[in-house]
Amino acid sequence: MSQLVMRRDRLDVLPGEPPLAGNYLLREAVEADASGLASVLTAAFGDEWTEADVFERLLRAPDVRRTFVIVSDQGVVATASSQTIPDRWPDSGVVHWVGAEPAHAGRGLGYAVCLAVLRDHRDAGLTSAVLTTDDERLAAIRTYLKLGFRPLECDSDHGARWAAVFGKLAQTETAK
């Protein structure tokens, strides 16, 4: 099953940067963050990431412009990367590998790192942004919607899958 796709059409007007609580700091990743990035991505996605994976797929990948992290006194706790794939998404940046430590969920960290990526895309002269996600990542999808992303139906089953996702989002809102 293919991943769901979302798109934000305009990058010239972006939301204001939300304040990060307490001891959180948003910055660009450096090579010394590789271990922390591997830990965050393993926790967020369930697949084992190593430092070598981080270097190959993010920090030294030719299609990744920048990787952003949010750090606390515990180290790296959230990340997202700015990627370009001009053959597939001309004039668009890709919001890539968004993840956070589960212990830090619900604090707006995903929103903050994604907004940093959108600003990076805008500053690079890109006019839109895309991302891929999975049907069950409801909290992430809610964040992407707040950032102005909308579903993009790229496969024949995406319409039905998006309808199911929006149904689940409505149920979780009602339960609050």
Word description of this protein:
It is a single chain. The chain is α+β, with helices and mostly antiparallel strands and 176 residues long. Helices cover 36% and strands 26% of the residues. β4 and β5 form a beta hairpin. α1 (34-45) crosses α2 (51-59). It is globular. The model has no long low-confidence stretch (mean pLDDT 95). Pfam families: Acetyltransf_1 (PF00583). It comes from Fimbriimonas ginsengisoli Gsoil 348.
What labels describe this entry?
Aminopeptidase; seven-stranded mixed β-sheet; 5 helices; globular
Mean pLDDT: 95
Helix content: 25-40%
Q: Quick one: biggest sheet?
A: 7 strands, mixed
Counting structural domains, the number is 1
Oligomer: single chain
Shape: globular
The CATH class is identified as: Alpha Beta
How is the CATH topology named? Aminopeptidase
E-strand count: 7
The CATH architecture would be 3-Layer(aba) Sandwich
SSE pattern, N- to C-terminal: EEHHEEEHEHEH
Radius of gyration: 16 Å
User: Structural class of the secondary structure composition?
Assistant: alpha+beta
Protein name: GCN5-like N-acetyltransferase
InterPro entries: Acyl_CoA_acyltransferase, Bact_Acetyltransf, GNAT_dom
Keywords: Acyltransferase, Transferase
Domain N-acetyltransferase: 24-171
Quickly describe the structure.
The protein contains 5 helices and 7 strands, in the order E-E-H-H-E-E-E-H-E-H-E-H.
Question: Mind sketching the topology for me?
Answer:
Layout: E1 4-8, E2 25-28, H1 34-45, H2 51-59, E3 64-72, E4 75-84, E5 92-100, H3 109-123, E6 128-133, H4 138-146, E7 150-152, H5 158-175
Parallel strand pairs: 5-6
Antiparallel strand pairs: 1-6, 1-7, 2-3, 3-4, 4-5
GO molecular function: acyltransferase activity, transferring groups other than amino-acyl groups
Domain N-acetyltransferase: 24-171
InterPro entries: Acyl_CoA_acyltransferase, Bact_Acetyltransf, GNAT_dom
